[in-house]
Structures are given as C-alpha cells and as structure tokens.
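Friendly challenge for the regulars: who can give me the structure tokens for this chain first? No prize, just bragging rights.
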Amino acid sequence: MVRLRYVNSHSCGKTGLQAVFQALPDLYFRMASDGCILDYRAGNPADLFVPPQDFLGRRMQDVLPDPVGRQFFELVGKALREGKAVAMEFALQVKDGEKSFEARILPFLGEQAIAVIRDITERKRLSLNLERQVKLEKKKTLEAFQANVRIFQLTEKIRAAYESTSRLVNS
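First reply, four minutes later:
Bragging rights claimed.
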C-alpha cells in the first residue's frame, strides 16, 4: 500500500514536471563536465537550434558555432569549478534570422551542469528601440536648447539695437 502510493505520487510528480517544462519557454540541457549533452527539455521543440538526434550525446561546443560553443564550454567549466551559476548572452543565426539568447549554467550533481537558455530576442529589440528613442530625444532636446540660445542672443542684439536707436532719437 505504501509502495503503491509512492509509485503513484512519483508518476504524478514526473508528469507534473513535464507539464511545467512544456509550459515554460526556456530550453534546458543537462551536460557532463566535458560539455556532452546528456538530456534536454524544450517547451517548444521548434526552438531548438538543431534536432535532438543532432545534439544528444555530442558536446555543446561541437553543436554550437564558434565562438559561442567555445564560450559555452568555458562557462560550464567555470560553473563547476566555482560551484555557482554563471551567465552569458549570445546570438545565433537561425532560419528566421539572428536571435539573441541568455544562458544560465548551474552546477548539478557534482560533475554535471544544467543550462537554462532563454530567447531574449524581443527584449533586446525593445531595448535597442528604447536606446534609439532616448538618443533621438536627447538630440531633439539639445537642438531645442541651441535654438533657444540663438533666439536669446538675437533678442539681446535686438534689445541693444533698440536701446542704441532710442538714445540717438532722444538726443
């Protein structure tokens, strides 16, 4: 009876965990210390850079193009050496164009690592648009300030000319 309850509870937990992975947009990779991909989870399999048969059992640094693959491998080593999470941002050319990603790599079970990879393309695009908008607003503000300075200078010249003319007429 107790064993049956554990098996049912364990099965429900595994199904629940699979549902969580499917609901989240992130990609998850479990890797050996040499970067070999042991397992993965993808909420949307279409988000994978290559199909699973092309990366399972291969090293991440051999799957991803250089310099991203090399950088990824270095961060796996760093996460395992330091025993804490490390992060990186990178871009990949995919069929829809260039996409930006953030990877967080965490040590797992001693000599393994978990990589959580999130597509940040939209966030990057919005950030770049905001930066452009801020630069444009700064430029407009500077131009308006410079125009006001010129108006003030012209006003001062007109006032001085008016005062000069008034003195001549009144004398």
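Residues 31 and 37 are 4 Å apart (CA to CA). The chain has a mean pLDDT of 81. Your move, everyone else.
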